[in-house]
Design brief:
The chain has about 190 residues and is α+β, with helices and mostly antiparallel strands. The protein has four helices and ten strands; from the N terminus they run E-E-H-H-E-E-H-H-E-E-E-E-E-E. A hairpin with a 6-residue loop joins strand 5 and strand 6. The chain is globular. The protein starts with 8 loop residues before the first strand and ends in a 14-residue tail after the last strand. The N terminus is likely disordered.
């Protein structure tokens, strides 16, 4: 079944693309997972496989036609930034959302002075919905802990990341998803 519909919902005066018939597909997926005694362990294994041992820095070489990755030392400015934004926690959450929902809602914040990324996080897919596209592009993402019946006062709106002008917005969302033909807004796992 389709995970989105042509029916339009409104949040904070914006038309949003509902995720599922009643805009509750991520919650429905989580209920299915928790009702199955095997699926949580399978998803955790998939997440752990996706995460790997840890994030790291590597140099790629081709040796005798084989790809070889060699760990390398990086400048302390990079490792300091990774620690400051808690990159390992981000990676854990991103992998979890990709495994459970096949969507990752990345939040980013730029330092006003340097225009460098000062904070990154993952917004839970259960709480995020996309604005209906305008000019072939989603311009806003909305978050609320209850997308089924949101209280207008608690809705947060974020502009989407604009690759043509990366520093356009100090706070932004970059939505990553698998591609499923005919599903322009959201995707879902094969299970």
């Amino acid at each position: 079944k389709s995970t989105s519909t042509r029916k339009k919902n409104k949040i904070a005066g914006y038309e949003i693309a509902p995720w599922g018939i009643d805009n509750q597909k991520p919650s429905q997926m989580m209920r299915l997972v928790s009702a199955n005694h095997i699926k949580p362990q399978l998803l955790q294994t998939e997440r752990d496989f996706l995460m790997g041992h840890r994030l790291g820095h590597f140099k790629e070489d081709i040796v005798n036609g084989e790809r070889k990755l060699t760990p390398v030392q990086v400048d302390s400015e990079i490792t300091d930034w990774e620690e400051a934004v808690d990159l390992h926690s981000y990676w854990f959450k991103a992998c979890s959302n990709m495994v459970h929902f096949k969507n990752i809602v990345n939040y980013g914040s730029l330092d006003a002075r340097t225009k460098k990324v000062a904070a990154i996080d993952v917004i839970d897919c259960i709480e995020a919905r996309k604005e209906i596209m305008k000019s072939g592009r989603v311009n806003q993402v909305f978050t609320h802990p209850n997308c089924y019946n949101p209280d207008q006062a608690d809705i947060r709106s974020f502009p989407t990341y604009d690759r043509t002008d990366p520093a356009a917005d100090q706070n932004f969302v970059h939505w990553v998803q698998d591609h499923i033909p005919g599903q322009p807004y959201y995707t879902y796992p094969a299970w």
